[in-house]
Amino acid sequence: MIPFWYAVVSFMLIIYVVLDGRNFGAGMLQWVVAKTPEERRQVIAAIGPLWTWHEVWLVGFGGTLIAIFPRLMASAFAGYYLALFLILWCLILRGISVEVGGHINDRLWQGYWDFNFVLSNFLLAILFGAAAGNVARGVPLNADGDFSMAFFTDFNVRGHVGLLDWYTVSIAILAAVVLAAHGATYLTLKTEGPVHDRSEKYAKRLWIAVTPLSLAVLVESRIVRPDLPGRAWSNPLWWLGLVVTVISIIALVSGLAGRREQRAFLASNFLIVGLLATGAAAIFPVMLHSTLAPENSLTAYAVAVRPSTLRIATIWWPMGFALAVFYSVFISRRYAGKVSVQRDTQGFY
Amino acid sequence: MNSIFNDPGFWHRLQFGFTIVYHYLFPQLTMGLALFLVYWKWRALRSGDEKYNQAVRFWAKIFGLNFAVGVVTGIPMEFQFGTNWADFSKYAGGVIGQTLAMEGMFAFFLESAFVGALIWGEKRLGPRGHFAAAIAVALGSWLSGYFILVTNSFMQHPVGYQLEANGSLGISSMSTYLLNPWAFVQFAHNQLAAVVTGSFVVTAIGAFYALRRVHPVQAKLYLRAGTFVGLIASMLVAFPTGDAQAKMVGNHQPITLAAMEGKFEGGSEASVSLIGQPNVAAQRLDNPIEVPGALSFLAYGHFGSFVRGLNEFPKDQWPDNLELLYYSFHIMITLGTLFIALMGFATLQNWRGKLESSRLLLWGLMLAFPYPYIANTLGWMTAELGRQPWLIYGLFHTREGYSKVVSNGDAIFTLIGFTGLYFVIGLLFLGLTGREIGKGPKEPTVATIISEPEREVVLV
Fold first, then answer.
1. How many CB pairs under 8 A join A and B?
2. Does the A2-334 domain belong in CATH 3.40.50.300?
């Protein structure tokens, strides 16, 4: 039961990252792929009508986390207190800038909200990246399974660590570049005209930049968490994640090279799924690693609700998820097709 | 150095209270408005009259603005269970986590998937599809209300739980938990109160247009629907739902009922005070004007029933902000009574065909829209202040629930951040909503066929 629910909760977060990650990426790149005010509205229109649908998956993840692993949720959210509020405020700013920008057709007004849009999306990618780095590295959990962490201490990865150190910062950078590449691939599929052409160019460059960065992070991870590889190799899901990653890389390269936009974007989605799935499988069953003492680490088995409550969730949760999949089909049909600069094809503005 | 300001619990409560009160300004309108959208869309389908579609288009825009602010201010609510109330989540997460997750999976997904279709999808979906989208959004918003009220009802009147071996709570019976009698009454009371907010806002805009003599067809539609629904909902909020709510508090939280009424000494033929200021130090109500026997009747059904006073309970079980609780409850009741009177009179005038011509009444209807927001907020303050000092009634103290690892410095910092951010959101929301109201619904009448500058002249 516990491995299943661990996979479910990880999967919910991964879906959120894949869905909203495209918005972070497209948002970050808005100023470089779109030069005129009309082109910038085109980028907003490419993600605009769907941002609440994407963001709601974060709520789905948060809810599932409280329902299944309340002990972990309490410990992690209270420990990451300030960082989490920065994420929430950036999400608020991002949502507001998407919504209010289009209400007034004025250059200064839209320019101002475009700025907030780019900034909040960039910060979101960095903050989520740093959060992922913290999960991989571990946090200073005490014997009660609680922690409280400064933004930075001595930039080292052991003992009383801070939110930011050389390792978490490099994962944050990798996350920003991967999501920017993901967003560029999305805009290539979703737009036409000059925005499309620039996005295509950026997608190729950014995915090339991902290669050395991810290799560097791989080496760093080996140093920071020498205990992980052994655990990972004995987990079949890790191997599955690896297979997904490798197939996605091949599909992505062929999609980008052959200008098959649909294939490239699908591959980009699955590449992120594969990368995060290998990460999630590698740390299992530890959900939060302690940098102070390994015995303080919180495992999925220790933080989950009792089996009787788990059984209840096993009944209703799949129904909720099936409905969500059904809505996804509706949405992907309704919002299919490209957004052009002249015409409002998404009914958004 | 030992004041309330050093108490971390105070800051966590203040932040949660502030963010939830602010957040709930938006869902209460969308839940109420969703019914109007479904109703008008249905009328449009049945009659083919274009004015109903125009109403839906206009109100869908207002709905969209409220929905967006509701989403962005709602996400911090879920996360604060972990960030600010970690010890509560550790203790009760095994129970309340179920409904919080169900809200996300069953309600939010539904609502957010179809809200875009409702606001922008009329042409693509066609009339039937658009009607279905309105129903989906309404259903999603009401379901979300139910799951949240089940969660809150567990905190008011815990049922269906068991104490696990590790000292935390788990679910013993999911059906008992989901069908908590407290949740039924609170859901009915709360949803009707949301309909009151929706109908007052619809009425206010109708009155505004009628007073300015613009959009006459739409103004009439809003005034008629708004005042009629407003009257029915205001009456149902008071009776039977408000009445049932008070009886439930009387049966399960007698201390809360005594505190709500400022009743220090118990007795039979207990009175309801219409006016009076609780003086906790002297343990009496100052300057009271009272209706004898009314509380006994309202709480237990007989004028002679014995109502217990606060003095019968140990002081550490009294709600810790007794004065605010007393005022919240009393102002809510007063407002609720005024709502029935105002909407009753407006419905009467409407029936006599005089609603659009009585300008004084239209002014009153236009300026009345903030008060249901106030009454809704006060209702929630009554419920939550009345629950104190418990976080889960009788099981878990509020002072045990906050996150012990979060310093006051961190808590005050985020409170400042929310204050600033929500102030800006409030300004934007008011400005943009004002613009949409100024633009108004598009009517294919003479006024819109004439070009804009000329129209100004016509209106003057």
1. 209
2. no
